[in-house]
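Researcher: Next sequence.
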Amino acid sequence: MPDILRTIIRSILLIVGLFIITKLLGKKQLSSLSFFEYIVGITVGDIAGTLAMDPDLSLRDGIASLVVWSFVPLAISTISLRSRLFRKIVEGKSTTFIEKGNILEKNMRKEKYSIDELLEQLRKKSVFKVADVEFASLDSNGELSVLLKKAKQPLKYEDYKIQMEEETPSVAVLMDGNFIEENLRRVGLDRNALIAKIHEKGNKPQEVFYAEVDSNGNLKIDLYDEYLTGHFPDFDHI
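Model: Next structure:
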């Protein structure tokens, strides 16, 4: 078998394997990584890349190595869910940098964090004055959590004592010109009722690219660009 074909096959197999591993580890791995998960991610990627490019390496041994490196974080995550002490040891705990408006230099030195880095992280949170901060801590995933002083926090409806109704996310009922039957049932509509609502807005179903229904039952639609510009395509009627 030619080397190039062998490399392609090995790469495809490894991509499929990494996809399965990622699904097993869960979505958490895609958002915020702990220190250990960061190391595992680098190692697994390095193993996969080496196996794909070096035909002299045993694919069987390489897959075994990937399984081991993937099983360990999966096992650690499972144990961490059951033991707070174990989770604290493996993932660490947050470190307070600002408390009651005062910077804790000792904690910053412990985390090898300079004042310039702290100010940079605060600016990323749209905070440009240390004096505006009541509390700030460095989480185990490296993110800085910030609580502003009460006087500097944005106003909320509850501050005005206004009674607000709870809202839920809008539900897509038509996408790419196709009805989503499952979501129509969720909002208590059928296809004919949706078509009637679209007609009430002065449009035809074949003109609609995307439609969603909010928590109050209101329909929001987005038309195909061709109908916005006046260049109409020849669609079949729905």
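Model: Residues 76 and 90 are 8 Å apart (CA to CA). The longest helix spans residues 59-82.
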